[in-house]
Protein backbone atom coordinates (compact mmCIF):
# COMPACT_ATOMS: atom_id res chain seq x y z
CA UNK A 1 0.00 0.00 0.00
CA UNK A 2 2.94 2.33 0.60
CA UNK A 3 4.02 1.74 -3.01
CA UNK A 4 0.51 2.68 -4.18
CA UNK A 5 0.71 5.92 -2.18
CA UNK A 6 4.16 6.64 -3.65
CA UNK A 7 2.93 6.10 -7.23
CA UNK A 8 -0.09 8.35 -6.62
CA UNK A 9 2.10 11.09 -5.19
CA UNK A 10 4.43 11.11 -8.19
CA UNK A 11 1.65 10.50 -10.73
CA UNK A 12 3.17 7.24 -12.00
CA UNK A 13 -0.04 6.09 -13.69
CA UNK A 14 1.42 3.26 -15.77
CA UNK A 15 3.35 1.87 -12.81
CA UNK A 16 0.31 2.17 -10.55
CA UNK A 17 -1.85 0.31 -13.04
CA UNK A 18 0.67 -2.55 -13.05
CA UNK A 19 0.83 -2.45 -9.25
CA UNK A 20 -2.94 -2.80 -8.90
CA UNK A 21 -2.96 -5.67 -11.41
CA UNK A 22 -0.26 -7.49 -9.46
CA UNK A 23 -2.01 -6.89 -6.12
CA UNK A 24 -5.34 -8.15 -7.44
CA UNK A 25 -3.66 -11.26 -8.81
CA UNK A 26 -2.14 -11.96 -5.39
CA UNK A 27 -5.09 -10.88 -3.22
CA UNK A 28 -8.32 -11.44 -5.15
CA UNK A 29 -10.02 -12.28 -1.83
CA UNK A 30 -9.99 -8.65 -0.62
CA UNK A 31 -13.07 -6.67 -1.81
CA UNK A 32 -11.57 -3.38 -0.59
CA UNK A 33 -8.63 -3.81 -3.00
CA UNK A 34 -10.95 -4.26 -5.99
CA UNK A 35 -12.88 -1.16 -4.98
CA UNK A 36 -9.68 0.85 -4.60
CA UNK A 37 -8.47 -0.20 -8.04
CA UNK A 38 -11.82 0.63 -9.67
CA UNK A 39 -11.97 4.04 -7.97
CA UNK A 40 -8.49 4.84 -9.23
CA UNK A 41 -9.50 3.96 -12.79
CA UNK A 42 -12.63 6.10 -12.49
CA UNK A 43 -11.33 9.11 -10.58
CA UNK A 44 -7.67 9.32 -11.56
CA UNK A 45 -7.54 7.79 -15.03
CA UNK A 46 -11.09 8.96 -15.89
CA UNK A 47 -11.84 5.57 -17.41
CA UNK A 48 -15.35 4.40 -16.59
CA UNK A 49 -14.92 1.42 -18.90
CA UNK A 50 -11.86 0.14 -17.00
CA UNK A 51 -13.57 0.74 -13.64
CA UNK A 52 -16.64 -1.18 -14.85
CA UNK A 53 -14.44 -4.05 -16.01
CA UNK A 54 -12.76 -4.24 -12.57
CA UNK A 55 -16.11 -4.23 -10.75
CA UNK A 56 -17.44 -7.02 -12.97
CA UNK A 57 -14.34 -9.08 -12.21
CA UNK A 58 -14.70 -8.29 -8.51
CA UNK A 59 -18.25 -9.64 -8.53
CA UNK A 60 -17.01 -12.96 -9.89
CA UNK A 61 -14.83 -13.31 -6.78
CA UNK A 62 -17.27 -11.62 -4.37
CA UNK A 63 -20.82 -12.15 -5.64
CA UNK A 64 -22.26 -11.62 -2.14
CA UNK A 65 -20.35 -8.44 -1.25
CA UNK A 66 -22.71 -5.52 -0.46
CA UNK A 67 -19.82 -3.05 -0.54
CA UNK A 68 -18.75 -4.03 -4.08
CA UNK A 69 -22.31 -3.63 -5.35
CA UNK A 70 -22.73 -0.30 -3.56
CA UNK A 71 -19.54 1.14 -5.03
CA UNK A 72 -20.29 -0.26 -8.50
CA UNK A 73 -23.74 1.38 -8.34
CA UNK A 74 -22.18 4.67 -7.22
CA UNK A 75 -19.60 4.50 -10.03
CA UNK A 76 -22.26 4.11 -12.73
CA UNK A 77 -24.18 7.08 -11.34
CA UNK A 78 -20.99 9.16 -11.21
CA UNK A 79 -20.28 8.24 -14.83
CA UNK A 80 -23.80 9.25 -15.86
CA UNK A 81 -23.46 12.55 -13.99
CA UNK A 82 -20.08 13.22 -15.62
CA UNK A 83 -21.46 12.58 -19.11
CA UNK A 84 -24.51 14.77 -18.43
CA UNK A 85 -22.24 17.65 -17.44
CA UNK A 86 -20.07 17.14 -20.52
CA UNK A 87 -23.12 17.14 -22.77
CA UNK A 88 -24.42 20.28 -21.09
CA UNK A 89 -21.11 22.07 -21.68
CA UNK A 90 -21.08 20.99 -25.33
CA UNK A 91 -24.64 22.21 -25.80
CA UNK A 92 -23.72 25.55 -24.26
CA UNK A 93 -20.84 25.82 -26.71
CA UNK A 94 -23.29 24.96 -29.55
CA UNK A 95 -21.07 22.16 -30.81
CA UNK A 96 -22.21 19.17 -32.87
CA UNK A 97 -23.16 16.25 -30.60
CA UNK A 98 -23.60 13.61 -33.27
CA UNK A 99 -20.04 12.33 -33.14
CA UNK A 100 -19.76 12.26 -29.39
CA UNK A 101 -22.13 9.33 -28.94
CA UNK A 102 -23.84 10.29 -25.68
CA UNK A 103 -26.37 7.54 -25.01
CA UNK A 104 -29.70 8.58 -23.51
CA UNK A 105 -29.81 5.35 -21.51
CA UNK A 106 -26.42 6.06 -19.91
CA UNK A 107 -27.31 9.71 -19.31
CA UNK A 108 -30.50 8.59 -17.59
CA UNK A 109 -28.64 6.17 -15.31
CA UNK A 110 -29.81 3.00 -17.05
CA UNK A 111 -26.53 1.17 -16.36
CA UNK A 112 -26.84 2.06 -12.69
CA UNK A 113 -30.38 0.66 -12.76
CA UNK A 114 -29.06 -2.62 -14.19
CA UNK A 115 -26.52 -2.81 -11.35
CA UNK A 116 -29.29 -2.06 -8.83
CA UNK A 117 -31.56 -4.83 -10.19
CA UNK A 118 -28.71 -7.34 -10.10
CA UNK A 119 -27.76 -6.29 -6.58
CA UNK A 120 -31.21 -6.72 -5.02
CA UNK A 121 -31.64 -10.12 -6.65
CA UNK A 122 -28.35 -11.27 -5.12
CA UNK A 123 -28.32 -9.53 -1.73
CA UNK A 124 -31.50 -9.60 0.32
CA UNK A 125 -32.55 -7.35 3.15
CA UNK A 126 -34.15 -3.94 3.55
CA UNK A 127 -31.03 -2.29 4.95
CA UNK A 128 -29.02 -3.03 1.81
CA UNK A 129 -31.94 -1.84 -0.31
CA UNK A 130 -32.07 1.46 1.58
CA UNK A 131 -28.29 1.89 1.25
CA UNK A 132 -28.70 1.92 -2.55
CA UNK A 133 -31.50 4.46 -2.25
CA UNK A 134 -29.24 6.68 -0.13
CA UNK A 135 -26.58 6.55 -2.85
CA UNK A 136 -29.13 7.40 -5.56
CA UNK A 137 -30.29 10.44 -3.55
CA UNK A 138 -26.83 11.96 -3.94
CA UNK A 139 -27.52 12.55 -7.63
CA UNK A 140 -30.14 15.06 -8.79
CA UNK A 141 -31.15 13.20 -11.97
CA UNK A 142 -32.30 9.99 -10.28
CA UNK A 143 -35.88 10.84 -9.28
CA UNK A 144 -37.39 8.02 -11.35
CA UNK A 145 -34.78 5.55 -10.09
CA UNK A 146 -35.43 6.61 -6.50
CA UNK A 147 -39.17 6.02 -6.94
CA UNK A 148 -38.48 2.57 -8.38
CA UNK A 149 -36.16 1.67 -5.50
CA UNK A 150 -38.71 2.93 -2.97
CA UNK A 151 -41.54 0.95 -4.59
CA UNK A 152 -39.40 -2.19 -4.67
CA UNK A 153 -38.51 -1.68 -1.01
CA UNK A 154 -42.19 -1.60 -0.03
CA UNK A 155 -43.01 -4.55 -2.30
CA UNK A 156 -40.16 -6.92 -1.44
CA UNK A 157 -39.63 -6.02 2.23
CA UNK A 158 -43.11 -5.20 3.50
CA UNK A 159 -42.62 -7.47 6.53
CA UNK A 160 -39.19 -6.11 7.43
CA UNK A 161 -39.31 -3.70 10.43
CA UNK A 162 -36.43 -1.71 8.94
CA UNK A 163 -38.62 -0.84 5.92
CA UNK A 164 -41.36 0.61 8.10
CA UNK A 165 -38.84 2.46 10.25
CA UNK A 166 -37.32 4.01 7.14
CA UNK A 167 -40.71 4.96 5.68
CA UNK A 168 -41.80 6.57 8.94
CA UNK A 169 -38.62 8.60 9.30
CA UNK A 170 -38.99 9.77 5.71
CA UNK A 171 -41.89 11.91 6.91
CA UNK A 172 -39.46 14.04 8.90
CA UNK A 173 -37.56 14.79 5.69
CA UNK A 174 -40.64 16.14 3.90
CA UNK A 175 -40.13 19.81 3.03
CA UNK A 176 -41.24 22.11 5.81
CA UNK A 177 -43.14 25.34 5.40
CA UNK A 178 -41.14 28.06 3.63
CA UNK A 179 -39.27 30.20 6.15
CA UNK A 180 -41.49 33.17 5.26
CA UNK A 181 -44.49 31.22 6.52
CA UNK A 182 -42.97 30.64 9.94
CA UNK A 183 -44.79 33.50 11.60
CA UNK A 184 -43.65 32.31 15.00
CA UNK A 185 -41.75 29.55 16.74
CA UNK A 186 -45.14 28.16 17.66
CA UNK A 187 -45.98 27.69 13.97
CA UNK A 188 -42.70 25.88 13.40
CA UNK A 189 -43.37 23.62 16.38
CA UNK A 190 -46.86 22.85 15.07
CA UNK A 191 -45.41 21.89 11.67
CA UNK A 192 -42.91 19.58 13.39
CA UNK A 193 -45.69 18.09 15.53
CA UNK A 194 -47.70 17.29 12.38
CA UNK A 195 -44.70 15.52 10.86
CA UNK A 196 -44.20 13.46 14.01
CA UNK A 197 -47.90 12.56 14.02
CA UNK A 198 -47.53 11.23 10.47
CA UNK A 199 -44.47 9.23 11.55
CA UNK A 200 -46.42 7.83 14.47
CA UNK A 201 -49.31 6.86 12.20
CA UNK A 202 -46.96 4.88 9.95
CA UNK A 203 -45.46 3.05 12.94
CA UNK A 204 -48.94 2.17 14.22
CA UNK A 205 -49.90 0.87 10.77
CA UNK A 206 -46.71 -1.20 10.74
CA UNK A 207 -47.49 -2.72 14.12
CA UNK A 208 -50.82 -4.01 12.83
CA UNK A 209 -49.03 -6.34 10.40
CA UNK A 210 -45.49 -6.68 11.81
CA UNK A 211 -45.97 -7.54 15.47
CA UNK A 212 -42.38 -8.34 16.44
CA UNK A 213 -40.07 -7.19 19.21
CA UNK A 214 -37.81 -5.62 16.59
CA UNK A 215 -40.67 -3.50 15.21
CA UNK A 216 -41.71 -2.37 18.68
CA UNK A 217 -38.10 -1.58 19.54
CA UNK A 218 -37.70 0.64 16.47
CA UNK A 219 -40.94 2.45 17.31
CA UNK A 220 -39.96 3.06 20.92
CA UNK A 221 -36.46 4.14 19.84
CA UNK A 222 -37.98 6.71 17.49
CA UNK A 223 -40.23 8.06 20.26
CA UNK A 224 -37.26 8.30 22.64
CA UNK A 225 -35.15 10.13 20.04
CA UNK A 226 -37.88 12.71 19.48
CA UNK A 227 -38.46 13.11 23.22
CA UNK A 228 -34.76 13.77 23.85
CA UNK A 229 -34.61 16.50 21.18
CA UNK A 230 -34.59 19.99 22.65
CA UNK A 231 -37.58 22.24 22.10
CA UNK A 232 -38.81 25.42 23.75
CA UNK A 233 -42.42 24.53 22.97
CA UNK A 234 -44.00 23.05 26.10
CA UNK A 235 -46.90 21.55 24.16
CA UNK A 236 -44.57 19.68 21.78
CA UNK A 237 -42.42 18.52 24.70
CA UNK A 238 -45.49 17.20 26.53
CA UNK A 239 -46.79 15.55 23.37
CA UNK A 240 -43.49 13.74 22.85
CA UNK A 241 -43.43 12.74 26.48
CA UNK A 242 -46.91 11.24 26.35
CA UNK A 243 -46.04 9.47 23.11
CA UNK A 244 -42.90 7.78 24.45
CA UNK A 245 -44.58 6.64 27.66
CA UNK A 246 -47.57 5.41 25.68
CA UNK A 247 -45.36 3.51 23.23
CA UNK A 248 -43.50 1.81 26.06
CA UNK A 249 -46.73 0.89 27.82
CA UNK A 250 -48.18 -0.60 24.60
CA UNK A 251 -44.99 -2.57 23.90
CA UNK A 252 -45.03 -3.85 27.49
CA UNK A 253 -48.66 -4.93 27.21
CA UNK A 254 -47.85 -6.69 23.94
CA UNK A 255 -44.99 -8.47 25.74
CA UNK A 256 -42.59 -7.00 23.17
CA UNK A 257 -40.47 -4.52 25.15
CA UNK A 258 -36.72 -5.20 25.14
CA UNK A 259 -34.46 -5.20 28.20
CA UNK A 260 -32.82 -1.96 27.13
CA UNK A 261 -36.16 -0.18 26.73
CA UNK A 262 -37.42 -1.46 30.09
CA UNK A 263 -34.35 0.11 31.69
CA UNK A 264 -35.05 3.48 30.02
CA UNK A 265 -38.72 3.31 30.95
CA UNK A 266 -38.00 2.64 34.62
CA UNK A 267 -35.51 5.52 34.66
CA UNK A 268 -38.09 7.89 33.17
CA UNK A 269 -40.77 6.83 35.63
CA UNK A 270 -38.44 7.47 38.57
CA UNK A 271 -37.49 10.89 37.14
CA UNK A 272 -41.20 11.74 36.91
CA UNK A 273 -41.75 10.71 40.52
CA UNK A 274 -44.02 7.82 39.51
CA UNK A 275 -42.27 5.54 41.98
CA UNK A 276 -45.02 2.98 42.49
CA UNK A 277 -45.41 2.53 38.74
CA UNK A 278 -41.62 2.17 38.41
CA UNK A 279 -41.64 -0.57 41.07
CA UNK A 280 -44.50 -2.34 39.28
CA UNK A 281 -42.74 -2.19 35.90
CA UNK A 282 -39.45 -3.32 37.45
CA UNK A 283 -41.16 -6.42 38.80
CA UNK A 284 -42.80 -7.12 35.43
CA UNK A 285 -39.47 -6.68 33.63
CA UNK A 286 -37.72 -9.26 35.80
CA UNK A 287 -40.58 -11.69 35.29
CA UNK A 288 -40.17 -11.35 31.52
CA UNK A 289 -36.36 -11.51 31.60
CA UNK A 290 -35.80 -13.84 34.55
CA UNK A 291 -32.24 -14.80 33.62
CA UNK A 292 -31.08 -11.27 32.79
CA UNK A 293 -28.50 -9.93 35.24
CA UNK A 294 -28.93 -6.48 33.76
CA UNK A 295 -32.69 -6.48 34.37
CA UNK A 296 -32.38 -7.60 38.00
CA UNK A 297 -29.59 -5.07 38.50
CA UNK A 298 -31.78 -2.27 37.11
CA UNK A 299 -34.63 -3.27 39.39
CA UNK A 300 -32.40 -3.52 42.47
CA UNK A 301 -30.71 -0.16 41.77
CA UNK A 302 -34.13 1.45 41.39
CA UNK A 303 -35.29 0.03 44.73
CA UNK A 304 -32.08 1.23 46.39
CA UNK A 305 -32.54 4.74 44.97
CA UNK A 306 -36.11 4.80 46.27
CA UNK A 307 -34.91 3.46 49.65
CA UNK A 308 -37.35 0.56 49.57
CA UNK A 309 -37.14 -2.16 52.18
CA UNK A 310 -37.37 -5.10 49.79
CA UNK A 311 -33.90 -4.74 48.21
CA UNK A 312 -32.49 -7.87 49.88
CA UNK A 313 -35.45 -10.15 49.03
CA UNK A 314 -35.36 -8.98 45.40
CA UNK A 315 -31.64 -9.71 44.99
CA UNK A 316 -32.03 -13.05 46.73
CA UNK A 317 -34.83 -13.83 44.28
CA UNK A 318 -32.49 -12.85 41.44
CA UNK A 319 -29.91 -15.42 42.56
CA UNK A 320 -32.54 -18.15 42.05
CA UNK A 321 -32.92 -17.29 38.36
CA UNK A 322 -29.58 -15.87 37.22
CA UNK A 323 -26.80 -18.28 36.28
CA UNK A 324 -24.16 -18.46 39.02
CA UNK A 325 -21.35 -17.61 36.60
CA UNK A 326 -23.16 -14.36 35.71
CA UNK A 327 -24.04 -13.31 39.25
CA UNK A 328 -20.95 -11.24 40.13
CA UNK A 329 -22.53 -7.82 39.32
CA UNK A 330 -25.41 -8.65 41.67
CA UNK A 331 -23.08 -9.69 44.50
CA UNK A 332 -21.05 -6.49 44.01
CA UNK A 333 -24.20 -4.39 44.04
CA UNK A 334 -25.54 -6.13 47.12
CA UNK A 335 -22.41 -5.72 49.23
CA UNK A 336 -21.97 -2.08 48.15
CA UNK A 337 -25.52 -1.37 49.22
CA UNK A 338 -25.09 -3.29 52.49
CA UNK A 339 -21.91 -1.37 53.32
CA UNK A 340 -23.90 1.88 53.12
CA UNK A 341 -27.16 0.70 54.65
CA UNK A 342 -26.49 -2.12 57.12
CA UNK A 343 -24.32 -2.86 60.14
CA UNK A 344 -20.83 -4.31 59.77
CA UNK A 345 -22.08 -7.59 61.20
CA UNK A 346 -24.78 -7.89 58.51
CA UNK A 347 -22.33 -6.92 55.76
CA UNK A 348 -19.74 -9.44 56.95
CA UNK A 349 -22.39 -12.17 56.96
CA UNK A 350 -23.13 -11.25 53.35
CA UNK A 351 -19.44 -11.41 52.40
CA UNK A 352 -19.18 -14.85 53.99
CA UNK A 353 -22.03 -16.01 51.74
CA UNK A 354 -20.44 -14.47 48.66
CA UNK A 355 -17.04 -16.15 49.09
CA UNK A 356 -18.56 -19.63 49.00
CA UNK A 357 -20.47 -19.13 45.74
CA UNK A 358 -19.81 -22.26 43.62
CA UNK A 359 -18.46 -20.27 40.66
CA UNK A 360 -14.65 -19.78 41.02
CA UNK A 361 -14.54 -16.41 39.24
CA UNK A 362 -17.21 -14.93 41.53
CA UNK A 363 -15.67 -16.39 44.70
CA UNK A 364 -12.18 -15.06 43.85
CA UNK A 365 -13.37 -11.49 43.30
CA UNK A 366 -15.55 -11.48 46.41
CA UNK A 367 -12.62 -12.67 48.55
CA UNK A 368 -10.61 -9.69 47.31
CA UNK A 369 -13.49 -7.34 48.11
CA UNK A 370 -13.95 -8.94 51.55
CA UNK A 371 -10.29 -8.34 52.42
CA UNK A 372 -10.47 -4.71 51.26
CA UNK A 373 -13.64 -4.09 53.23
CA UNK A 374 -12.21 -5.67 56.39
CA UNK A 375 -9.17 -3.37 56.24
CA UNK A 376 -11.19 -0.27 55.36
CA UNK A 377 -13.75 -0.68 58.13
CA UNK A 378 -11.94 -2.53 60.93
CA UNK A 379 -8.26 -1.97 60.35
CA UNK A 380 -5.11 -4.03 59.86
CA UNK A 381 -5.70 -6.65 62.53
CA UNK A 382 -9.08 -7.64 61.14
CA UNK A 383 -7.73 -7.66 57.57
CA UNK A 384 -4.96 -10.02 58.65
CA UNK A 385 -7.53 -12.19 60.39
CA UNK A 386 -9.59 -12.40 57.18
CA UNK A 387 -6.44 -13.15 55.18
CA UNK A 388 -5.45 -15.97 57.51
CA UNK A 389 -8.91 -17.50 57.26
CA UNK A 390 -8.97 -17.44 53.45
CA UNK A 391 -5.47 -17.84 52.04
CA UNK A 392 -5.72 -21.62 51.87
CA UNK A 393 -9.36 -21.77 50.77
CA UNK A 394 -9.36 -22.22 47.02
CA UNK A 395 -10.29 -20.79 44.59
CA UNK A 396 -8.10 -17.80 45.28
CA UNK A 397 -6.42 -15.15 43.12
CA UNK A 398 -2.96 -13.67 42.94
CA UNK A 399 -4.63 -10.28 43.43
CA UNK A 400 -5.86 -11.41 46.86
CA UNK A 401 -2.26 -11.85 48.03
CA UNK A 402 -1.16 -8.62 46.38
CA UNK A 403 -3.86 -6.72 48.24
CA UNK A 404 -2.60 -8.11 51.56
CA UNK A 405 0.97 -7.17 50.60
CA UNK A 406 -0.21 -3.63 49.82
CA UNK A 407 -2.07 -3.42 53.14
CA UNK A 408 1.12 -4.44 54.98
CA UNK A 409 3.19 -1.86 53.11
CA UNK A 410 0.70 0.87 54.02
CA UNK A 411 1.42 0.40 57.74
CA UNK A 412 3.67 2.94 59.44
CA UNK A 413 6.05 0.17 60.41
CA UNK A 414 5.54 -2.59 57.88
CA UNK A 415 7.27 -5.83 58.79
CA UNK A 416 9.43 -7.61 56.25
CA UNK A 417 8.74 -10.84 58.10
CA UNK A 418 5.03 -10.49 57.28
CA UNK A 419 5.74 -9.50 53.69
CA UNK A 420 7.89 -12.62 53.25
CA UNK A 421 5.02 -14.72 54.58
CA UNK A 422 2.57 -13.20 52.08
CA UNK A 423 4.99 -13.56 49.15
CA UNK A 424 5.81 -17.16 50.07
CA UNK A 425 2.14 -18.09 50.33
CA UNK A 426 1.42 -16.39 47.00
CA UNK A 427 4.34 -18.16 45.31
CA UNK A 428 3.08 -21.56 46.45
CA UNK A 429 -0.06 -20.89 44.42
CA UNK A 430 1.23 -18.82 41.50
CA UNK A 431 5.01 -19.20 41.47
CA UNK A 432 5.03 -21.30 38.29
CA UNK A 433 3.10 -18.75 36.21
CA UNK A 434 3.86 -15.30 37.63
CA UNK A 435 7.33 -13.88 36.94
CA UNK A 436 6.12 -10.52 38.25
CA UNK A 437 5.54 -11.98 41.71
CA UNK A 438 9.15 -13.21 41.93
CA UNK A 439 10.49 -9.86 40.74
CA UNK A 440 8.41 -7.95 43.29
CA UNK A 441 9.66 -10.25 46.05
CA UNK A 442 13.27 -9.59 45.05
CA UNK A 443 12.61 -5.85 44.83
CA UNK A 444 11.09 -5.95 48.32
CA UNK A 445 14.21 -7.58 49.77
CA UNK A 446 16.35 -4.91 48.09
CA UNK A 447 14.30 -1.86 49.09
CA UNK A 448 12.66 -2.61 52.45
CA UNK A 449 14.38 -1.32 55.59
CA UNK A 450 14.33 -4.85 57.04
CA UNK A 451 15.08 -6.55 53.72
CA UNK A 452 17.98 -8.94 53.16
CA UNK A 453 19.59 -8.43 49.73
CA UNK A 454 21.57 -11.64 50.28
CA UNK A 455 18.28 -13.56 49.91
CA UNK A 456 17.86 -12.39 46.30
CA UNK A 457 20.16 -15.05 44.84
CA UNK A 458 18.15 -17.86 46.41
CA UNK A 459 14.86 -16.31 45.28
CA UNK A 460 16.26 -15.99 41.73
CA UNK A 461 17.37 -19.64 41.74
CA UNK A 462 13.92 -20.81 42.91
CA UNK A 463 12.20 -18.68 40.24
CA UNK A 464 14.34 -20.21 37.48
CA UNK A 465 13.35 -23.68 38.69
CA UNK A 466 9.61 -23.01 38.88
CA UNK A 467 8.95 -20.80 35.84
CA UNK A 468 8.68 -22.27 32.37
CA UNK A 469 8.87 -21.21 28.70
CA UNK A 470 8.25 -17.54 27.94
CA UNK A 471 7.85 -16.76 31.64
CA UNK A 472 11.53 -17.63 32.18
CA UNK A 473 12.63 -15.26 29.40
CA UNK A 474 10.41 -12.51 30.78
CA UNK A 475 11.81 -13.00 34.28
CA UNK A 476 15.45 -13.02 33.13
CA UNK A 477 15.09 -9.84 31.05
CA UNK A 478 13.31 -7.96 33.86
CA UNK A 479 15.77 -9.24 36.48
CA UNK A 480 18.66 -7.95 34.37
CA UNK A 481 17.03 -4.52 34.20
CA UNK A 482 16.49 -4.64 37.97
CA UNK A 483 20.17 -5.41 38.59
CA UNK A 484 21.29 -2.52 36.38
CA UNK A 485 18.90 -0.08 38.06
CA UNK A 486 16.60 0.33 35.07
CA UNK A 487 13.53 -1.19 36.69
TrEMBL record:
Pfam families: UTP6_C (PF24892)
Chain ranges of the U3 small nucleolar RNA-associated protein 6 homolog C-terminal domain: 197-467
Origin: domain of life: Eukaryota
Transmembrane feature ranges: none
Any Gene Ontology CC annotation: small-subunit processome
GO MF, one annotated term: snoRNA binding
GO BP terms, alphabetized: maturation of SSU-rRNA from tricistronic rRNA transcript (SSU-rRNA, 5.8S rRNA, LSU-rRNA)
Gene3D superfamilies (alphabetical): Tetratricopeptide repeat domain
Family the entry assigns: Belongs to the UTP6 family.
Designated name of the protein: U3 small nucleolar RNA-associated protein 6 homolog C-terminal domain-containing protein
Amino acid sequence: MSHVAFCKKWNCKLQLSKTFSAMLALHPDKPALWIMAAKWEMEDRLSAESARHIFLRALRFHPQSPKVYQEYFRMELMNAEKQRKEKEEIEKAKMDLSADGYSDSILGGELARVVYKSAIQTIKGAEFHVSLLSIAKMFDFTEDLQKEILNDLQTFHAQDPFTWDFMARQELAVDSLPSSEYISKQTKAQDLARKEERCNAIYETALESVQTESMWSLYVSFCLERYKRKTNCKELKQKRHNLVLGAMRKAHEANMLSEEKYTEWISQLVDLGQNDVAVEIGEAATKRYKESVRMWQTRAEMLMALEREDVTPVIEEAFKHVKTKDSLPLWMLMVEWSEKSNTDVTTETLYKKAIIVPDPAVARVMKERYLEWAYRTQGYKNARKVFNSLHERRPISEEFFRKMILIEKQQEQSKMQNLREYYERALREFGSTSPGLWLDYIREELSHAEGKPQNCGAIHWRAMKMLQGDDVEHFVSKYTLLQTGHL
